[in-house]
Amino acid sequence: MGPRSVAVIGATEKPGKVGNAIMQNYIDVGFQGRVYPVNINAEGKIMGFDAYKSILDIKKEIDLAVISVPAEVVPKVLAECGKAKAKGVVIVTSGFAEVGREDLQDRIVSISKKYHMPVIGPNCLGVMDTRARNDTLFLPTSKIDRPKIGGVSFVSQSGSVGSSLLDLISGEGFGLARFISYGNAAVVDEVDLLNYLAHDKETKVIIYYMEGAKRGREFVDVAKTATKLKPVVILKGGMTPSGASAAHSHTASLAGSTQAYEAVFRQFGFVEARTLEDCLYFAKIFDTQPLTTGNRIAVLTNGGGHGVLATDALYNNGLIMPELSKENQKRLRKVMPGIVNIRLPLDIGGDADASRFAAALDALSDDKNVDAIMAITLFQTPGADESVADAIVNHAAKKLKPIVAVSTGSTYTKSHVSLMENGGVPVYESPDVAAKALAALVNYSRYRKGAA
Amino acid sequence: MGPRSVAVIGATEKPGKVGNAIMQNYIDVGFQGRVYPVNINAEGKIMGFDAYKSILDIKKEIDLAVISVPAEVVPKVLAECGKAKAKGVVIVTSGFAEVGREDLQDRIVSISKKYHMPVIGPNCLGVMDTRARNDTLFLPTSKIDRPKIGGVSFVSQSGSVGSSLLDLISGEGFGLARFISYGNAAVVDEVDLLNYLAHDKETKVIIYYMEGAKRGREFVDVAKTATKLKPVVILKGGMTPSGASAAHSHTASLAGSTQAYEAVFRQFGFVEARTLEDCLYFAKIFDTQPLTTGNRIAVLTNGGGHGVLATDALYNNGLIMPELSKENQKRLRKVMPGIVNIRLPLDIGGDADASRFAAALDALSDDKNVDAIMAITLFQTPGADESVADAIVNHAAKKLKPIVAVSTGSTYTKSHVSLMENGGVPVYESPDVAAKALAALVNYSRYRKGAA
């Protein structure tokens, strides 16, 4: 459950100020709880809400305090949060360890400890909880779209990677549970966050962008449990020698050796993303599809060239295109037009309609040699329309075997991609990307089976 | 110059027929020349145009005949095209060598030879010429968007890869010169097409999807010349053992060994795409940017995490992040705020505005240690708005050094991406993709320099 009362410390009506953007955002996203603006100079109201000079003046239970006052003032207002028994604090303000002010940051740590009060930040965007509509971001909704409610949670050590990937996620078919940008990690760090999300019921899949773990050993310990509970997709910045140097300059992260990280990721069942896009590709297959029983993928297509590219892509990703069982070959021969060659990739022709797609999907799902399906549905073809998208969605709803779709194209195609994604089918733009996502699912499924 | 008179043989008012779709398409795309519908059963008009029973009845000069009659009838009407002195023919009809009817296909070849008449197809989508608005596609504009006019030409051995990638291209910032889907290549084949586009003045960049070259040696000979004139981006289906088998089943292509193809691609200066998306990524950098002088890339960013990811991506793609020259370090130190660390990746801060971007770009372009620029412009940040997009466009217009932009995001970001792409700047969604495109530019530039 999200916070029901939030104190915004540093709230102001002055446009362009972070404290103004945070207030405006609470209004824009429709937060359902109480908002208390706090500002040392407050008189009367701020943006329509009763304002307070100090959090101590509110005299109500405060679930969350969001601090955006200047760095020098942060220790004072943080101590007041402690006295007011705020249950949690997000410090958005920058100007701490990242600019050499370890002294100021140390005081934050002491105050947090003294009051047993969890603190996220400083130097971060804060948190977003789509269900509670709690959203401490100071980036306006006009510049960054907010994702719909869903099962993917996303943690980012970098504000820019966090905000831009969050924005990208909002354009995808899947929804978000929580977003956390934790900045300097003075108190709450990567270990706490991974542990929290591992046990969070609203989180089905975790995406993690990190540049370095301060408590590496503890992180691995928590990860061992987390990856047995749910997929943890990790994108690690600074995996190359020059990247590690850039990461050190950015978040003072000691990046460690690439080999060491890769070994850890593999050993403990992380799903390793190598690009920003991988995070999205992987999140959406894990969010919607069951684990696989193996790496044998049946490719179904209404375009021959895509079938060839898919075959290459499976091979390049360590996946196998099996032979169909004898029974299923006979069954498909009966229902498919004579011109269709009964073998994988199963090219059912440019004139394939919904019923042909449905018959093929049923046979492939029944086949004991098939672990998952890649259904290439090109909507440029004469046979493909909304009913084909429906056929894919209806088949996927049976949850017989993992299925992904591939549709390449623009306006007409994209409207059908939305239909399929809203129906719970992960859709990819190319066979290459789909194969990459299937390989992530296969590898993670294998880890879970071994770890069970 | 495109055709000014087209005979559509098999034209009909019956919806759902290919001959109907082709006619409708000539109307929809606004072809400026004369259209003559031909149908053995024609009486009066077809879709508002005077109709003819045979091309021989038209008695006018015919620049192009498009044939969509049943396969068995094709030799007869093709011979009539020869007698009518049609300057070129596209045979859309399928049912030839791809289904074992080599006999029918051989007759096409003989007739073409007899009349010295170039024939594209059979079993293809045909051709599109954006300037002449000649467009033989039987896929309606409601299902597949048409790209704007530009300098990229795209040839596809596969109809499905052709139509879907064409559709994707229409959503990109760059425009198209010609599209050619050549199907079975009975007469005009990959050698003729590459040779034609290599010398075509409207074509700046070639994208080629192929599954196999029938005349491999001649293809290489033509390629040697072509790649010295312009970039040829090639995506080869069937590069893996299983993919080669699928390609053979699809287009009867003998795919050859992966190693052999890769060696040829490298030796003769092809730009090898490994995915459908690569074709777009590479086409847009070649379409807009000059060749590079080397592989030293300056990364400029308004987000630290993206700077780290870009540094990794450069390394992974064989590119180098140089040290800035001493003079430029001093120059940048003077114009940048104290908090900005003067080194690459140059993180100019989340509050960076257009003037800070412009000052940084000027310095980086002047630096003798820099061959090209990756400008990461995240529009989620408070400082970034339309004026930042303008600054990038204005700088790129000076054509000092190759430049690409990176912007990750949804609605607000995408509108600014359009501004930049319409202004001639290739924009990528992630540093990874941008680095891949820069590496393609660097490698091709190196080839051209060596081949000069």
How is the topology of this model organized?
2 copies of one chain form a homodimer.
Chain A: E1 5-9, H1 18-28, E2 34-38, E3 45-46, E4 49-50, E5 64-67, H2 74-83, E6 89-91, H3 102-115, E7 119-120, E8 126-129, E9 134-135, E10 149-156, H4 159-170, E11 176-181, H5 190-198, E12 205-210, H6 216-229, E13 232-236, H7 241-251, H8 258-267, E14 271-273, H9 276-288, E15 297-301, H10 304-316, H11 326-335, E16 346-347, H12 354-366, E17 372-376, H13 386-397, E18 403-406, H14 411-422, E19 427-428, H15 431-451
Parallel strand pairs in A: 1-2, 1-5, 5-6, 6-7, 10-11, 10-12, 12-13, 13-14, 15-16, 15-17, 17-18, 18-19
Antiparallel strand pairs in A: 3-4, 8-9, 8-11
Helix pairs in contact in A: 2-3, 5-6, 9-15, 10-15, 11-12, 12-13, 13-14
